[in-house]
Write the structure tokens for this entry.
Amino acid sequence: MGNRGTVSELKPTVAAVLPGGGARGAYEVGALSVLLPALEERGERVSVWCGTSVGAINAAAYGSLAHQSASDQADTVMHFWKTVRKQHVMSPLIGVGGARTIARIVAHAAGIPGVSLAGLMDPSPLAKSLEEWIDWHQLDANVESEVVRAVCVVATSMSTGSPVAFVSAGDGAPEFVDDEIRYVETNLRGEHVRASAAIPLLFPTVEVTSPASAHGHYADGGTRLNSPIKPALSLGAEKVIVIGLEPFSPGGRRTVTPRTPSIADVASNVLDGLLVDQVAHDLRRLALINSFFVEDAATTGALDAPRTYRLARGHKPYRPVSYALVAPQRRGEIGRLAQQMFHRRYGGLRGLRDLDYVVLMRALGADTPARGELLSFLLFDPEFTGELIKLGRRDARRWLRRHPRFWCRDASHDLSFGAVDRAAIREQEALAEFRQLRNPRS
């Protein structure tokens, strides 16, 4: 495992943006196992890692391995995902753990003082697992030696309802005031990652104690910022790799059925809003910046209003950002794979190998695509995660075939967001500038 050069020797700054998705995190490492070696062959390496929920776990893991070669990083993280089991993440539903959960539900419903219903599942095994999976002191050393520029995980503050980016960085967290995100510099530890992965209702919130200025309870960062593209840019990224868990292009409407919606239907729609819509919104913004706002004479030219507006707020001018996007080609592909894998692994008497999954599937209702979507977040099964790794590798190779130079900047190649009225954009940005000048403290 050879040591790598410092960030200062590797230009431009490349960031990897990893969204949340439970067991789908295996797809991310599959894609990166192809992209990272290809990037290294070009003389480039990821130096900024940003993640939310399971993406935060992956980001911290890669940050702790940044001193290794790209192929060694890929092998290490893939081995971890091929060996992870449900018991490494959450306590069993059937047995003592389930009995405790039921007791909490009953006590909470009865109004017994001192009893709170923080979540339906117990993720206490994850705390121990993170200490075994991630070498936090090596992560600190990689940041200090500038092998990696920054590692950032996003959680949602329960006191403000806003996203908080916990950042371990040699240059510190961004100092400018952001309307949407609070940046907190710290040495990342398991509490920050667990906070980012605390899915509301399913898992309890996590109390973060360090640093003292950010002490409080936090939930999954995906509720406010599932795909942390903006923090990556704020941390200096000039190129970004974005891994998606559904296609980036707009999808068709869901098929409407006359039956009463199940828990899976409701949860699947919520997750779509968190994990798909937000990513599409961030990428649309990135595409607009590249196409209309950047200060690049070779393009359509910069707009004066955005530049003035951003400088007034302490931000740097917009700059062109090259990207690499990897996601499944067909919507719902991962959910269908989860359904198939469940029936193969746990159908009939095979369900005796893990009764938790059988009970969970019964509770989620009919055998529908929505149930598969939700199951794909919770199916920490080695065969399923192994197949997700293969899917990620397949889709990363498809990107490289389509973009042999790795990077793209033209949104028309990979993103479809409809016609854009340039005159309307000018008017909107001019109005924003006027408001900023009238109220510089806003």
Observations:
- Confidence is low (pLDDT under 50) at residues 105-110, 292-303.
- The beta strands are 14-18, 46-52, 150-157, 163-169, 182-185, 206-208, 216-220, 239-243, 322-326.
